[in-house]
Amino acid sequence: MAETQLMDFKVDEIFDLFLLLKGADVRTAKNGKRFIHLTFADSSGELAGNLWDASEQDINAFVAGKVVLVRGKKELYQGNSQIKVMHLRLANDSEPNDPAQFVAHGPMTTSEMEEEISQIIFEITNPEWNRVVRAVLQRHIERFYQFPAAKKNHHAFAGGLAFHTISIVRLAKTVADLHPNINRSLLYAGALLHDLGKTIELSGPIATSYTLAGNLIGHIVLVDEEIVNVCAELHFDPESEEMLLLRHMILAHHGLLEYGSPVRPRILEAEVLHDLDELDASIQMMSSAVEQTVPGEFSERIFGLDGRSFYRPELGERN
Amino acid sequence: MAETQLMDFKVDEIFDLFLLLKGADVRTAKNGKRFIHLTFADSSGELAGNLWDASEQDINAFVAGKVVLVRGKKELYQGNSQIKVMHLRLANDSEPNDPAQFVAHGPMTTSEMEEEISQIIFEITNPEWNRVVRAVLQRHIERFYQFPAAKKNHHAFAGGLAFHTISIVRLAKTVADLHPNINRSLLYAGALLHDLGKTIELSGPIATSYTLAGNLIGHIVLVDEEIVNVCAELHFDPESEEMLLLRHMILAHHGLLEYGSPVRPRILEAEVLHDLDELDASIQMMSSAVEQTVPGEFSERIFGLDGRSFYRPELGERN
Amino acid sequence: MAETQLMDFKVDEIFDLFLLLKGADVRTAKNGKRFIHLTFADSSGELAGNLWDASEQDINAFVAGKVVLVRGKKELYQGNSQIKVMHLRLANDSEPNDPAQFVAHGPMTTSEMEEEISQIIFEITNPEWNRVVRAVLQRHIERFYQFPAAKKNHHAFAGGLAFHTISIVRLAKTVADLHPNINRSLLYAGALLHDLGKTIELSGPIATSYTLAGNLIGHIVLVDEEIVNVCAELHFDPESEEMLLLRHMILAHHGLLEYGSPVRPRILEAEVLHDLDELDASIQMMSSAVEQTVPGEFSERIFGLDGRSFYRPELGERN
Amino acid sequence: MAETQLMDFKVDEIFDLFLLLKGADVRTAKNGKRFIHLTFADSSGELAGNLWDASEQDINAFVAGKVVLVRGKKELYQGNSQIKVMHLRLANDSEPNDPAQFVAHGPMTTSEMEEEISQIIFEITNPEWNRVVRAVLQRHIERFYQFPAAKKNHHAFAGGLAFHTISIVRLAKTVADLHPNINRSLLYAGALLHDLGKTIELSGPIATSYTLAGNLIGHIVLVDEEIVNVCAELHFDPESEEMLLLRHMILAHHGLLEYGSPVRPRILEAEVLHDLDELDASIQMMSSAVEQTVPGEFSERIFGLDGRSFYRPELGERN
Amino acid sequence: MAETQLMDFKVDEIFDLFLLLKGADVRTAKNGKRFIHLTFADSSGELAGNLWDASEQDINAFVAGKVVLVRGKKELYQGNSQIKVMHLRLANDSEPNDPAQFVAHGPMTTSEMEEEISQIIFEITNPEWNRVVRAVLQRHIERFYQFPAAKKNHHAFAGGLAFHTISIVRLAKTVADLHPNINRSLLYAGALLHDLGKTIELSGPIATSYTLAGNLIGHIVLVDEEIVNVCAELHFDPESEEMLLLRHMILAHHGLLEYGSPVRPRILEAEVLHDLDELDASIQMMSSAVEQTVPGEFSERIFGLDGRSFYRPELGERN
Amino acid sequence: MAETQLMDFKVDEIFDLFLLLKGADVRTAKNGKRFIHLTFADSSGELAGNLWDASEQDINAFVAGKVVLVRGKKELYQGNSQIKVMHLRLANDSEPNDPAQFVAHGPMTTSEMEEEISQIIFEITNPEWNRVVRAVLQRHIERFYQFPAAKKNHHAFAGGLAFHTISIVRLAKTVADLHPNINRSLLYAGALLHDLGKTIELSGPIATSYTLAGNLIGHIVLVDEEIVNVCAELHFDPESEEMLLLRHMILAHHGLLEYGSPVRPRILEAEVLHDLDELDASIQMMSSAVEQTVPGEFSERIFGLDGRSFYRPELGERN
To answer: Helix B127-139 vs helix B184-193: angle between axes, to the nearest 10 degrees?
Structure first.
């Protein structure tokens, strides 16, 4: 991979880069000819570009998931950066061509995250919750450290799901320190499992789409069912207060029925989990958008925040 | 039980009746003295009344679930009928004192309903759905024929849940006859299970309240979990298309996220089930309200229908 | 008309077909040249396609309502099928060129529908409603059997209005069988007239648009006025309870003020009519969308159902 | 009628007054005894009061519509003035006992209003609209000058409907002077008829309630039907642009579907009529509420203005 | 400036006109080449057009704010008029090239408006309000007579802000004549200042955009702060009732919190100001849209009026 | 003050306590006699009770703000605890009668809070923000440490405003540690000032009501004005980016226009401040409600949390 990455180039600069094709849609232009709308990515970010007058051969070769060598120029199109594709070919075996190397990562390594998750589980002192959390997590452990937290918007990078989970627990610690009446075990247990259903709801870390289970059941209920299954394995009563509380933490974590929770939070810890989940997702969405904005300007509108755009101050680091 | 029933008396008439106490709340009047706010019922309906200046002994004796002998007068209080309690004592063992005899029933007997349900199951020709439906239903079969369909509002009588289920299936048949593209097995299977979770959500047919599972999980998810459990027993894959479709029928049957479904209907049969469920519940609520209204007047406002009141025409049967 | 119809061809197949031009908009491409955006139809359905670099002569010839002979290829454009127009000319007099032959029809013939409508009227036993219904229907009888039920969305085929009416009455029968307190005459009378105003609101069965009366008054009030007029003719008192009830059935049938009803349903039969109307329209919209979808995929989003898309199961007929 | 009127007395003052009973509801107190909740009025305003321990004879004598002689004291009850009834008897024939004398009136006499309405009609220069307006108005002319504009809230005094109409036309003149593109005839014609249906919707000027036509049809559609009827009489085409425009003015004047208009304003004049109607009603509601408030305090909450209360400044006239 | 103006030409007519470039966005076409999307204007209105295949030199020359000589043809593109640019060059010094001459103006000259504003201030008889209004107005007096009332939509012409202010005061006079309880000084004072913050919120009369203060603070609070500042200068107590009332007039004038007022109107005069503000803005938006519509057709949809389109009657002046 | 406090007694226990009268409303009972509705408080909480048949002398003596000696019994009235007043007299000078001793306090002492606030200010490294924060805070410093954070609901104890502020800053630290792109100085500065306007909006710590400035301007704008005033004093440009950012933090902190912010958050730090403000207020409201609830039951409904009630688990400390 080149040292200078995709997002480092300025508008009008020309580059030669190995990039991952994250998407490749065949379309027909208004003049009747076909072109491929491509999404190029490396770990610095992603940009779109079109391959005009695409041949059948192009269409078969340039599909999502392939690594390609691109000569291109960064351009502005209706206010957004895109790539003008000047030359394009598939990477060969002697060149960088492992898709995993071109995917964006979060600020922590997998092993750092594993260590912190392990410590959090240790702090769940209630033995039933501790065992259920470990059993449910174990069923999806590999995907938990690989998946993004969402198809787009927030924590949309590999490992984003685990990092989002850790961020919520760190905030939860401060909240529990301020409010000793909060049940720390319950809050941590809920935080660890709350979004785990996304490993079933989403197809995978690279060409992320919704599965049929995701569309017809949804990640919230999918985790709840896992808890019920694990209860059967561990011979815990799923109707005990402890298990009802834990399931409620998951079921209620979207906060409002309109957002897909079948019940609203009815215990303190469930409301706190919901609030911290929203807080962390919002910050991540705003940070991504503002980072890509010139100081003194407003960012693009963020769909997940009611279409608001956010201002990047000029004073910057000076404060 | 007297031949003339509670709802047959007119305002200002005096009666002596054996009645069930459905509710008994101890309150303090503005003059500082205690009274008991009582809800009296027989199979014709229910009315409230107060026992003024209640002694400790009264408070201990007159509790919900007891059958009492009442001498009372029907009165109007702010537009509603209520009972002015003139004398009150508990029924003794030689008198009618079985609460079950004082509860309202629907238009079909239990055995008629059992027969029709059995026939419906027979028409679910898909063998997996057929087995799942029978297994889930079997787990709650007794309560299915005893429970009301709701705490109040619609089908709030013993057996209301089963009768509501049957009504939906009858409508579903007409719909499926009109639209041959509808999957009849799926629609019937969803209809049979859709509200079964109410047997877990509600405490019972007489002093109906919400259980903790009802409050924290809700009847929709409770049935979904039962299906997942039954799949494990029967060694069916819960992630097969067939099982996802059936679970979706249940999860989506409230139609809107705001009404507690974690997903909106995404298959034709799920939307139809939702629409028929609403239709049948609305008709039941309106019919109850209009029945208690004098021709030429508007009924009381119905909470479950946006607070609307409904007019009972004078022309009556003549049409 | 060719035996293989427009919707039978697969993507990339080439065909020669006589087709009706349902729409023809002249537009300017981004390169400054004119093209015509055409909508082609036969009784199997409709597809769009562009005639590029259109001459003045083309623009004058290819207008909505004409039958043309097309050589074309079915293509995918942004997920939707469209026609790549390879050759195009008007049909001549010795060829199929009657627009009426290229319009989609519902599942019943006009004479079957007439017979069923006639039977329904017979079952309106109240003599005043019976006479009013017949008189109002008579004023628009021809259009009633020709018009679609809506400009697009549901029952958007010739005869759709009458077929939608019949479907509602069939459902109404099942409802009335279940609930003997429903006034069957009133429900049928309301069902027969409820959408008749669409024959005034819409311009016609082929190039359907809204009339000025449709835009400024709306089909709901237009029928109500017809009833008032007919009352004058028949010397019925429009303020009698019977006529108020019938008018209310029409005025309230959209259910909510937001949907254009000036009053919400205040009688049982009006609420039922509204619910059945919505049910039948929804099923029709979903059925159309799902029919055009490959098994295992989600349909296009349906505007009239909150933009939801619907899944077409793979298990198909097997159930 | 006494010179000092009901609203002139201060809290704790005792008075002897002839007053109209606007309402008389028999209720049962918490101690089981009956009382009558009375609404007393003269032309200065109205106040409530209770007659405790009411006998059968009292209940038969003191009914709505009667004039009574009251000895009472003004009291505060939960922040509102009310009357403590010390003595009560019916007025006899030699005393003031004409209910019409005890009803509040607006700032103009009937003959002043007749003159102004007559002048407005004169300014409707379009002959068709002029004739229709006169014909429709003539059908309800007596009630037009007697009725309130609403059951409660705004212009709830005798003659309020005509005065509200005149106020709107005066505002309309200023608007039309500012905007010469407005069709003055159409705006005046719409203003004159817009609320006339209230003479059918409401039972009368004294014990105002909704009629069945009011509940099932609503005053908006009731006027539209009158226009259609008058068109038939005058042999005007109800589907001509002129008549569609006039009917649209009426149908759209509530502005939003949610407020009962079956169509939203689609012509400039209809939007203006709606805005002026709301403006005048709001001012009237606020003025009434503020008038009854002590300077330096907030008024009661006004239901028709989203429950807001309004501040009465201390600086008062000084400005 | 040519005698025949931009908006006078018909579709397909060719013209040579000096026009102001109100906007100039560089974009890339689907064929990969750059073009400039231009907005041309003179005092009769504005139209868009594209300069295809734009060179670097074109991009540098044709920027917003320049006057150009255009040879063009009026065309229809998707129902809207636009300009097909046939030739384009900058105006030279001997030709009309003052941007101010190409801007639309309202119906009053600046000096007429100054005179009327001066008279209105004279009628604010409360001396404190009179002085505050004059002081605040003086700070922005030049911009007050130059600015539009909004970026687009209503009164979007030079001087629109002052004309909108005057229109509101004229309506306010009629209202105050009808309702003598209204504090005329307060209503006029609020009307004069209500939108003055737009001179800070918007960048200027020609290439109008939002300033940072506009985005982060908003014009409502910006005026309130000016009043507080002026109070300090004049040694008035900002917490006196008089100053609180005046500030409340400004803060509440958007009527609803959703529309950006931090408080809802809590005094009569504030509600009236809000209503008149909305009324005047609506009429202006509708008038502009209808003026550009052919009689017998509906206008474009107006964003600020919920996307409604408005009908322009054919009967026109005849009424 | 007695060692056992008001909230320590159980239902039916009789006590003799010195208590503060937080409220005293004179009302008339349904039997026509006056009573005083009293709110009694000590630092453990507050309860209501009625003094029946109150004399003029009682009404004059027992007013809000007085300390009284009460003999009373704790009772249940419609599910809530209240006091049955058995005897009541004013405390004399030799008895505890300082109202300040009977007010509830938060978990930190004033001096602990002062120290922490001082440290936070020290961490605002931007010198302009640092000076503005100190100057604005200084103007209201005494009230800042005495006031509750709200009239009721959250942090409704003396010192609640300062404690709420500190809680937010502690959460802000964790957030800023997780997200290094956040401007810590700006977030702390905004947090310190965000609710300071409540010292102007509310009348005081004991008989808390809204001031006229509170009602007509609101606490959000009141702080913004203070910043503008302080800028003038310190000769800072209020339109500099730094000051616009700080003012925006305050103006936007309610998050939504519907909640009274005149602008929505448009910078990252403003959104975070809003989210933390809501989070802390919610937790405080839930904690108060749950604390007063028996384990295994649901709390009272919390108005500020959409009327939800919260469950207090039985498992309690064991976790």
So the answer is: 10
Q: Are residues F37 and F118 in the same domain?
A: no
Give dist(CA C150, CA C285) in Å, integer.
11
* CA pair distance C273, C277, nearest whole angstrom: 6
Beta bridge partners of E70: E17, E88
Q: How many Cβ atoms from other residues are within 10 Å of residue F14's Cβ?
A: 11
Which chains form contacts with chain E, at 3 or more CB pairs under 8 Å?
Answer: A, C, D, F
pTM for this one?
0.85
**Of C102, C125, C148, which one is at a domain's C-terminal end?**
C102
A310 touches chain E (CB under 8 A): no
* Strands C67-77 vs C80-90: parallel, antiparallel or unpaired: antiparallel
Give the CA-trace dihedral at B213, B214, B219, B220, to 10 degrees.
-80
Residue B212: which domain range? 110-284
Q: What is the CATH number of the domain that holds F273?
A: 1.10.3210
* Whole-number Å distance between alpha carbons of B225 and B252: 14
Same domain, yes or no, for D94 and D125? Answer: no
Helix, strand, coil content of chain F in percent (nearest 5): 45, 20, 35
CA proximity to C289, closest of C315, C312, C316 = C312
B37 class by beta-carbon count within 10 Å (0-12 exposed, 13-18 middle, 19+ buried) = middle
**Domain match, F78 and F222 both:** no
Mutation site for A-interface testing, chosen from E212, E216, E217, E258 by largest number of A Cβ within 10 Å: E212
Q: Which residue of A has its CA nearest to B265?
A: A216
CA distance B169 to chain A (A): 23
Q: Is residue B315 part of a domain?
A: no
Task: Give the C:E interface size as CB pairs under 8 Å.
Answer: 16
- Give me the number of domains chain A comprises: 2
Q: Residues B297, B311: contact at Cβ < 8 Å?
A: yes
- Going by their DSSP bridges, the two strands B67-77 and E14-28 should be labelled as unpaired
Please tell me the distance in Å from E300's CA to the nearest CA on chain A. Answer: 25
A222 vs B: CB within 8 A: no
Q: If contacts are CB pairs under 8 Å, which of residues 116-175 in chain D contact chain E?
A: 125-126, 129, 167, 170-171, 173-175
The secondary element (H helix, E strand) that includes residue C244 is helix C241-251
* Contact by Cβ (8 Å): D319, E186: yes
Domain assignment present for D293: no
pLDDT in tens, chain E (319 residues): 447 888 888 888 899 999 999 888 887 766 667 889 998 988 888 888 999 888 889 988 998 889 999 999 988 765 567 899 999 999 998 998 888 788 877 889 999 999 999 999 999 999 999 999 999 999 999 999 988 888 776 677 888 999 999 999 999 999 999 999 999 999 999 999 999 999 999 887 766 789 999 999 999 999 999 999 999 999 999 999 999 999 999 999 999 999 999 999 999 999 999 999 999 999 999 998 888 788 898 988 888 898 899 999 998 644 4
Choose among D52, D42, D43, D44: nearest CA to D17.
Answer: D42
Inter-chain CB proximity E27 and A78 less than 8 Å: yes
Residues 6+ apart with CB under 8 A from A225: B224, B225, B228, B238
Segment (H or E) for A69: strand A67-77
F287 and A125 in contact by Cβ < 8 A?
no
ipTM: 0.84
CB-based contact B29 D30, cutoff 8 Å: yes
CB contact under 8 A, D212 and B311: yes
Which of B67, B102, B137 marks a domain boundary? B102
**Burial E257-276, CB ≥16 within 10 A → b, else e:** beebbbbbbbbbbbbbbbbb
Among F265, F275, F319, whose Cβ lies nearest the Cβ of A185?
F319
F140 and F254 within one domain: yes
Three-class SS of residue D210? Answer: strand
